[in-house]
Amino acid sequence: MLNRYRDVHVVREVAPFKVDGLAIPYPEFVARLYNLCMELGFRKGLIMPSRAFCSDENQGLPIILLTKHFGTFPFNHGRVGGIVAVDRHGPHSHHGEDLMILQASHVGYDPASGVYGIYNRPHMEGHCLSDSCGKLIHVITPYLGQYLFARDRTFLHKDEDGNHLITVKNSFIDFVSHPVDQGLVLRLNNIVDEDNMGTIRPFTSACTTQTYKVSEAFRRRLEDHNYTWVSGEGQSIGDLLTADLFFFREDFHETDDAILLERNLIEFMPDIVSARFPPLRAAKTNIQLEFARVVESIRRSDAYKDRNLLYIAGLNIDIPGDEDFPLMNYFVPWAAHVQLEDGTSGEYTHPIEQDELFAKLMEQSPENLDQMDLKENIRRILKTPRLDIRS
Asked: What is the rounded average pLDDT for all residues in the chain?
């Protein structure tokens, strides 16, 4: 007899990405990063750094600091949203003996309000607050709009007989005869009662909605959050519409390089749009998924074989300047991949996880004695006689 295998629903989750206590000011971080490279056996003057950042102007300071501390302008490994262009591994490897890749999605942060995802643009007139990262927020905005609409148009209420009910718009329901083609879909099986046949049937129906009895488990869950049921039309579900209660069924919105970003995020979009700060959650998620993808691409590529390589991923936090403080960037490390030309030790068989990576960076000196004097190099260029360049 042939074995019969049951299809198993395998869920992928992202790991906890901590920010509190792990953010390092960029001038300090890049010095420590260079010193970590030296501790790993990289050679002074032979390191080619590469960065995979967005092209926003608020990523300029990190690039300048990479130039200053590594002594050369970094190779460009990046696409919008902090996506790594893995097809550039080969060209990168041809520009230096020892290689370092720094990849980061970024998000704006207002220290006064504690809000993530906005940035005051100093080169715009007046007090101009805009999205940061704009491309990342552009990708999640259609999904965020659908979530906010569903959250406000799904109602919880209790009738006169004490039934605990939820009223849902037809457009959020995957009917057998008419499944949702595009948009947000409620996971009713996590919310409402099923009959003895496993069928979900409405308690009552209206012209554009269905009303269901909620399950005992869902009712207890709400009451564990001190939810108070009200009668009549009830009240919108609001923040109680959590990530496990819905998903999106949509064609991708993006048509340019940002489609790579949307592909990364779509599976985790319910978690992103229901977060306190969706831009921050999206950036954290993208960093984790990109790190796994890029490590796999490095291992499959011949470009970095038998070479010293450090690939480090994390979050760039952009802080706009004001009258009291200059604009700043902080880096929150996530993970790192290390390989060494003389054979990678067992210590680096697996990636360096967040806590260990932070500890390794903080063990390094915040001073880099090898850093380039950018001003002196510019002075030398200005004093150099003009060359007679001809074709």
From this structure: 91
Separation of alpha carbons 340 and 143, rounded Å? 42
Residue-range definition of the domain harbouring residue 327: 24-136+269-383
- Secondary structure class of 368 (helix, strand, coil): coil
Together in a domain, 99 and 168? no
Task: Give tens-digit pLDDT for 34-43.
Answer: 999 999 999 9
Residues paired with 316 in a beta bridge: 106, 331
The pTM score is 0.90
41 domain-assigned: yes
Bridge partners of residue 250, in order along the sequence: none
Question: Given this model, what pLDDT does residue 2 score?
Answer: 56
Same domain, 125 and 79: yes
Establish whether the linkage from the previous residue to 54 is cis, with ω within 30° of 0.
Answer: no
Is 200 buried (19+), middle (13-18) or exposed (0-12) by CB count in 10 A?
middle
Radius of gyration of the chain from its Cα atoms, rounded to whole angstroms: 26
Q: Is residue 391 part of a domain?
A: no
- Strands (E) in the chain, as ranges, are 24-25, 47-52, 75-76, 78-79, 83-84, 98-110, 115-116, 118-120, 129-131, 155-158, 164-169, 183-186, 204-205, 209-213, 235-236, 246-249, 309-319, 328-339
105 closest CA partner among 81, 86, 136: 81
């042939």: which residue's tokens? 2
Distance CA 357, CA 47 (A): 20
